[in-house]
Amino acid sequence: MSHFLLFRGLLCLFYLYFFGATRKKMKIYFSHGKESGPRGSKIKRLAFIAKERGCDVDSVDYTDILDPDLRVERLLGILRQEKDSFLLVGSSMGAYVSLVASEYLHTKGVFLMAPALYIPSYKRQTYCLNHQNIELVHGWSDDVIPFENSIRFAQKANCTLHLIDGDHRLNSSIEVVANLFEKFLSQLGCEKAL
After folding, report:
1. Over pLDDT 70: what percentage of the chain?
2. Rounded distance, CA 128 to CA 157, Å?
3. Which sequence spans correspond to the domains of the chain?
4. Given strand 56-60, what is the order of strands in its sheet?
5. d(CA 183, CA 161)
6. Fewer CB within 10 A of the terminal residue: the chain, N end or C end?
7. What proportions of the chain, in percent to the nearest 5, are helix, strand and coil?
8. What is the Cα–Cα distance from 178 to 181, expressed in whole angstroms?
9. How does 154-185 read in b/e, with b if 16+ C-beta sit within 10 Å?
10. DSSP 8-state code for residue 121
11. Quick check: 42 and 28 in contact, CB under 8 A?
12. How far apart are CA 148 and CA 36, in angstroms?
């Protein structure tokens, strides 16, 4: 009987370690674009996927700040309080914000959609490439941010770039974006919760 109880106890510890309270959750911070908000349709769709995988999510509200570099400061202020590992996800100006913030703090990865990179009015024109897990998604028909900017960055960063059918908002391709995001999370070890 005592061997059975010992086995059962070890089994419970194993389960808790891999699936329960002792396993730290990944936190995902979403940064929206210039003219959208923290509860946009893309963010809601991707946040749902992240939650399905047991991740905590936070969508930072930048609607009171137009300057992209002040948005970076807001995000850094939040991230400096973070104790667990985190992932940054951004769209358009929010992608710029996420990428620049990732240069100052260790993040597990950065997922960028239609990133506003190499924009002449933005402070940063070069980007430090201090981590491996960067993935970009950009629409071929984007008439706001040229997809060539993403190609330029991806070549320098030697990272994955998905050029897909879609415009700047990528709303018509949201399921493609969602599938790419799901694969990205899997590569980082965020598996679906049981």
Report:
1. 86
2. 9
3. 25-187
4. 56-60, 27-31, 86-91, 109-113, 134-139, 160-164
5. 13
6. N
7. 40, 15, 40
8. 5
9. beebebebbebebebbbeebbebbeebbbebb
10. T
11. no
12. 23
Q: How many residues does the chain have?
A: 194
Alpha-carbon dihedral 166, 170, 174, 176, rounded to 10 degrees: 50
162 beta partners:
137
What SS3 class is residue 164? strand
In the three-class reduction of DSSP (H, G, I as helix; E, B as strand; rest coil), residue 112 is classed as strand
> Using one digit for the tens of pLDDT, what is the confidence trace for 1-17?
555 444 454 444 444 44
Superfamily of domain 25-187: Alpha/Beta hydrolase fold, catalytic domain (3.40.50.1820)
State pLDDT tens for residues 62-119: 999 999 999 999 999 999 999 999 999 999 999 999 999 999 999 999 999 999 999 9
Give how far the C-alpha of residue 76 lies from the chain's centroid of Cα atoms, to the nearest Å.
15
Total-model pTM: 0.86
Helices (H) and strands (E) in the chain, counts: 6, 6
24 with 46: CB under 8 angstroms? no
Taking the C-alpha atoms of 163, 169, 171 and 174 in order, what is their torsion angle to the nearest 10 degrees? Answer: 50
Sign of CA dihedral 85, 44, 145, 80: negative
